């Protein structure tokens, strides 16, 4: 009996350990970096103390940085830095084709994840390209969210669509196509559409086909509703005969009960048309 009392308690079951581990991961996942830590890394970038990399940009300007920080933040930059030549203890790499201000914002983000809203509005498209090219998914997510929520207009939607396709952003691409389908008449008159038509006619054809397909789906739904009207009210409805004339003729001979039933069905047609979302933007001659 005394030996039995001295036996230590068994360890907890594996599922309990797994639950605790999951809780720990969830807590860590929701933790945010304190602002003072971000400020420290931002200061390191701005003061460039001990910089051992010069990033050459357009207009022959450069951004000083630290090799270790860039290599950890971007595996692509890490590979480029490994292959770069060293001169007087300094490595030189180039990031060309985008404004130097965008390169500055990009490198700053690698240090502290900081950026200014006004600057983001100016250079979000360039930052989207940089984040994709140099494999920085956190910045890419920010750019996509910014574009989806605040930046899309009829004037730039074609440019954003092509960028989304190039940078593998399917949700953003879908949102752009949906906007085009909703308002093709306005968007097709923009400068972005005209440039796309010359440079990428296949995309223009794809967008036009998307609009035609959306219209076809809308027509099929309307015809289905019209067939329902035919069954319940007894109207003879065809594609070639306007519903308006049948409506007027039938209303002359309807009882109050039939009239109430008709008004209810018409309200359902209108509700169904509104439920079509972006497809309802194009007029459908119901009555």
Write up this protein:
- The protein has 287 residues and is mainly alpha-helical.
- It has a domain at 217-281.
- The protein is 67% helix and 5% strand.
- It has 15 helices and four strands.
- The protein has helices spanning 2-5, 14-30, 35-47, 67-73, 75-83, 100-112, 117-133, 137-151, 157-166, 170-182, 184-187, 191-199, 201-233, 243-251, 256-274; strands at 53-56, 62-65, 86-87, 90-94.
- Strands 2-1-4-3 form a four-stranded mixed sheet.
- α10 (170-182) crosses α13 and α12 packs across α13.
- The chain is elongated, with a radius of gyration of 31 Å.
- The termini are far apart.
- The relative contact order is 0.06.
Q: Helicity, in percent?
A: 55-70%
Strand order of the largest sheet: 2-1-4-3
Name the overall outline.
elongated
Strand portion: 5-15%
Mean pLDDT: 78
**Coarse structural class:** mainly alpha
- Rg calc: 31 Å
Give the CA-CA distance, first to last residue.
Answer: 93 Å
Pfam family, one: BTB
Protein name: BTB/POZ AND TAZ DOMAIN-CONTAINING PROTEIN 3
Domain BTB: 51-119
Keywords: Metal-binding, Ubl conjugation pathway
Explain the layout of strands and helices.
Blueprint: H1 2-5, H2 14-30, H3 35-47, E1 53-56, E2 62-65, H4 67-73, H5 75-83, E3 86-87, E4 90-94, H6 100-112, H7 117-133, H8 137-151, H9 157-166, H10 170-182, H11 184-187, H12 191-199, H13 201-233, H14 243-251, H15 256-274
Parallel strand pairs: 1-4
Antiparallel strand pairs: 1-2, 3-4
């Amino acid at each position: 009996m005394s030996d039995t009392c001295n036996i230590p308690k068994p360890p907890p079951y594996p599922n309990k350990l797994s639950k605790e581990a999951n809780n720990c991961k969830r807590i860590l996942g929701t933790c945010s970096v304190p602002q003072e830590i971000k400020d420290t890394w931002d200061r390191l970038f701005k003061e460039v103390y001990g910089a051992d990399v010069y990033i050459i940009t357009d207009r022959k300007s450069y951004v000083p940085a630290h090799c270790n920080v860039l290599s950890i933040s971007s595996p692509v930059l890490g590979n480029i830095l490994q292959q770069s030549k060293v001169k007087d203890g300094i490595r030189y790499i180039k990031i060309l084709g985008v404004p130097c201000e965008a390169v500055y914002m990009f490198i700053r983000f690698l240090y502290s994840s900081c950026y200014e809203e006004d600057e983001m509005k100016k250079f979000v498209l360039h930052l989207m390209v940089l984040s994709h090219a140099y494999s920085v998914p956190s910045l890419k997510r920010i750019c996509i969210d910014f574009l989806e929520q605040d930046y899309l207009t009829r004037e730039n939607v074609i440019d954003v669509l092509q960028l989304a396709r190039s940078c593998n952003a399917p949700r953003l691409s879908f949102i752009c196509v949906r906007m085009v389908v909703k308002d093709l008449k306005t968007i097709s008159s923009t400068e972005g559409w005209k440039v796309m038509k010359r440079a990428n006619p296949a995309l223009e054809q794809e967008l036009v086909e998307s609009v035609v397909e959306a219209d076809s789906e809308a027509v099929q739904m309307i015809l289905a509703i019209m067939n329902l009207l035919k069954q319940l009210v007894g109207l003879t409805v065809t594609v070639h005969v306007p519903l308006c004339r049948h409506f007027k003729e039938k209303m002359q001979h309807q009882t109050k009960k039939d009239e109430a039933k008709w008004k209810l069905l018409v309200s359902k047609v209108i509700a169904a048309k509104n439920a079509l979302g972006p497809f309802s933007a194009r007029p459908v001659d119901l009555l």
